[in-house]
Design brief:
heterodimer, A: alpha+beta, 2 domains, 5-stranded antiparallel sheet, 4-stranded antiparallel sheet, B: 415 residues, mainly alpha, Na+/H+ antiporter like fold, AAE_transporter (chain A), Cation:proton antiporter regulatory subunit (chain A), monoatomic cation transmembrane transporter activity (chain A), KhtT (chain A), RCK_C_sf (chain A)
Chain lengths: 164, 415
């Protein structure tokens, strides 16, 4: 399903990552140590050789990544919602007086007890994706929870301190 | 007062001449190294323009140049990168050492320069020029090529091998007896090992020591640490160059990044002085007698480098065209060969070795990058595809107007 990315370290220069398409074309990104990037297009007849190298500054690289990536992401999310009927996403806040403010995500034992997962935390406009068990909640954090209706309600219950 | 005026005039004249030469060279795609060597041959004893007051300055400048060349080389690599590369490319490194060192050693023995001369000339023919090769690869747009990591791995292993080779050579050149020589060598190798371990384990700590937010303190800190360690290494017969290389390895992260930016202009300045100094210390009339052996040696060892590159690329599963490209790319010898020859000549090995090394480096560093382009010829002859046709007239360095992307920075650009 997902394309295989080959990664090559270039000691002293940076790193080069590339992908071979279904039709056998190789295309890659060369990231230099100083952060600037080059888009590399490989030769048809000699897939080891770069036939063209296009330097990109960070704005250009971001623009290209958005062109390639953003529609994919949106479609991917839409597909997920369609595919899994009965699975919901809900946002639950950590309120000021919550017993979990200042405590670790692992302390909630939410997944073990309810089957629902905390897949992201929204904090001051930023998204913290896939927080680990040692992630510490702040008051005002918004958890993004994925699970069944009962699972999500269960997590809300844990947050209110009902099941203990 | 008078001599200081002469000093300024001479140094200024030399630097200005180098600037003009370098510019002319770049226009035809030539590395500045051979031009600086030629400039050195032209100045000084037996040359066109005799120098008087600036010789002392140039000698000290050359010493600093070697140290700066090596510390910036070390800064390019992290210790863990070195370890990974040694594991992956050790067989290629071994083939590289055997194929390329032996022809040099044999020729030195044939010419009667003795075992020490043989070890020195072996080093001269063994080590490719990381600076010239990285620049050539960037110029030819080959950094993304799949064989490029194998080329760079060979260079990394050579650079690391120098950390072992230079102390051995230094001990041999010091003319110490076997017993005393092995003690000195033991101390040298132990020092290298200890510093490498320190760099691997405590690199962060060493980095913190010189870490500073303002550029001036960082420049003075890194330069001071480098010269100090290089001096101590030299005192222990490890060779100043290796000391500097190890300091470069030990520094990492943001400090290494900023230090590279700060030291590069200084490196370019003093490395140019170093190449001039080496040319200066070679009398031009000693070159013609060694020209024929130098040509032969260059032909043989450029061939063995091609074989080395092809072997290394084959191990990495690269196709036949890529193997040839890897082989042709590795041919130029440069800064390290001159460093080795410089050590040998300074220690009193046959002065002809200096002349031979100069001629040899001149040949390989000029023809190497030209021959590297050979493997692109078949591509330009092919019927043009829409993708390449649009950019067919593009110069390797040309970028679209208005692009703000920095040019690719090869390992030691400008050298």
């Amino acid at each position: 399903m997902s394309a295989r990315v080959e990664q090559r370290a270039l000691p002293g220069i940076g790193v080069c990552q590339d992908v071979v398409t279904r039709k056998g074309r190789r295309i890659g990104v060369l990231t230099h140590r100083d952060g600037h990037r080059e888009l590399v297009v490989y030769d048809v007849d000699d897939p080891d050789a770069a036939s063209d190298t296009i330097p990109l500054n960070s704005d250009e690289a971001n623009a290209l990544a958005e062109l390639l990536g953003a529609p994919q992401l949106v479609r991917h999310l839409a597909e997920l919602q369609q595919q899994v009927v009965g699975v919901l996403t809900e946002q639950l806040p950590i309120l000021d007086g919550s017993r979990f403010a200042g405590r670790a995500l692992g302390d909630t034992q939410a997944r073990t007890r309810t089957g629902a997962s905390i897949v992201a935390v929204l904090r001051q406009g930023e998204v913290i994706a896939s927080p680990g068990p040692s992630f510490v909640f702040n008051p005002g954090d918004m958890m993004v929870v994925v699970g069944t209706r009962e699972g999500i309600d269960g997590v809300a219950g844990i947050l209110r301190g009902e099941e203990d | 007062m008078h001599s200081s005026a002469t000093l300024l005039i001479e140094v200024g004249g030399i630097l200005l001449a180098l600037a003009l030469l370098g510019r002319a060279g770049r226009r035809v795609g030539l590395s500045p190294i051979p031009l600086y060597l030629l400039a050195g041959l032209a100045f000084g004893h037996g040359g066109l323009v005799p120098l008087s007051a600036s010789e002392g300055f140039i000698e000290v400048g050359a010493e600093i140049g070697v140290v700066l060349l090596l510390v910036t080389l070390g800064l390019e690599y992290s210790a863990s990168e070195l370890v990974t590369n040694v594991r992956a490319a050790a067989p290629a490194g071994l083939v590289d050492a055997l194929l390329n060192a032996i022809p040099g050693a044999v020729l030195a023995l044939v010419l009667g320069w003795g075992p020490v001369g043989a070890v020195a000339l072996a080093g001269v023919t063994w080590v490719s020029s990381s600076g010239v090769i990285a620049k050539t690869l960037a110029d030819l747009g080959r950094l993304g090529n799949r064989e490029t990591p194998t080329v760079l791995s060979v260079l990394v292993i050579e650079d690391l091998a120098m950390a072992l080779y230079l102390p051995i050579l230094t001990a041999l050149l010091a003319g110490l007896g076997f017993a005393k020589g092995s003690v000195v060598l033991g101390i040298a190798l132990a020092t290298v090992a200890i510093v490498l371990v320190l760099a691997l384990r405590f690199g962060n700590w060493i980095t913190k020591l010189v870490s500073a937010d303002d550029a001036e303190a960082l420049l003075l800190g890194v330069l001071g640490l480098t010269l100090l360690v290089a001096g101590i290494a030299s005192e222990l017969q490890v060779s100043a160059a290796v000391g500097a290389f190890l300091v470069g390895i030990a520094l990492s992260g943001e400090v290494a990044h900023s230090a590279t930016a700060l030291l590069s202009p200084l490196r370019d300045l003093f490395a140019a002085v170093f190449f001039v100094f080496f040319g200066l210390s070679t009398a031009p009339e000693t070159i013609p007698p060694v020209l024929l052996p130098a040509l032969g040696l260059a032909a043989v060892t450029m061939g063995t480098k091609v074989l080395t590159g092809m072997y290394a690329a084959k191990r990495a599963g690269i196709g036949s065209k890529g193997r040839l490209r890897a082989g042709l790319a590795l041919m130029p010898r440069g800064e390290f060969s001159i460093v080795i020859a410089g050590l040998a000549v300074a220690a009193g090995v046959d002065a002809q070795l200096g002349a031979l090394a100069t001629a040899y480096v001149l040949i390989t560093v000029v023809t190497g990058p030209l021959l590297a382009r050979l493997s692109d010829l078949d591509r330009s002859k092919r019927p043009k595809r829409p993708t390449t046709g649009l950019f067919a007239k593009r110069q390797p360095d040309a970028r679209p107007a208005g692009s703000t992307a920095p040019t690719p920075t090869p390992a030691t650009e400008g050298i």
